[in-house]
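Changelog-linked ticket: zinc ion example.
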Amino acid sequence: MRLILLGPPGAGKGTQASSIVEKFAIPHISTGDIFRKNIKEGTDLGKKAKEYMDQGLLVPDELVVAIVEDRLQEQDCKNGFLLDGFPRTVKQAEALDQVLAKMNVAIDKTINVDVDKEMLVERAVGRRICKSCGATFHVKFNPPQKEGVCDKCGETLQQRADDTKETVSRRIEVYLNETQPLIDYYNKKQILVTIDGQQEISKVFKDILTALGA
Ligand code: AP5
Ligand code: MG
Ligand code: ZN
């Protein structure tokens, strides 16, 4: 299964991604996670990406495309993958099409997780992440058993640097201008499915499985 998860910041892409990759045993490729890992490790890529991410802006297409192209060549992507947060511009989508054509494969479905704008800020601002294992929680909608502590590994939970109200608003604006056109792009290819992302996390996942015929 080769999948793309599309949706605004805070729509629940990462949350659904962890269930989807478990179900289909495919790798989860999140460009945001790749950048955060590089920032944590202090690499050159991390330093470059941080300048944009802290402002809620997109990292330049050339940088992102090169990373995804490399990642897709790895052995674990042979039988499928889930792209989360990529592509994010029409240019990235066109570049991805070229990469996939070279590999002789195609995307099966693009899953568009739809959530009202008003809801997105609350979701992002209340998000808490585990930097150790990557688990995601929400103080109100998906709280950990013990406040501030990861259920999965016991590590202290943190807020993402770009989850302030101001930066989230900018990210939503960027999404509307740069990424939303991809809904049309994949709709024209007849591989788009839109899922109501404003339901319980488990119901959203159920709808995704139904849309994938699984
Ligand atoms: P990235 O990390 O991809 O962030 P994003 O797209 O802004 O999306 P988020 O990760 O914020 O939200 P999500 O949809 O994953 O939601 P989540 O599941 O966590 O990108 C960050 C930055 O990196 C970008 O701004 C850009 O600078 C750069 N970047 C990355 N990719 C790039 C690219 N391709 N090109 C250029 N630049 C790029 O859920 C959010 C919260 O809601 C959580 O607390 C969760 O518990 C809760 N929640 C989830 N589902 C539900 C539900 N159904 N009901 C209630 N609460 C829910
Ligand atoms: Mg995410
Ligand atoms: Zn953890």
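Closing comment: Example verified and attached. The two ends are 11 Å apart (CA to CA). DSSP finds nine helices and seven strands in the chain.
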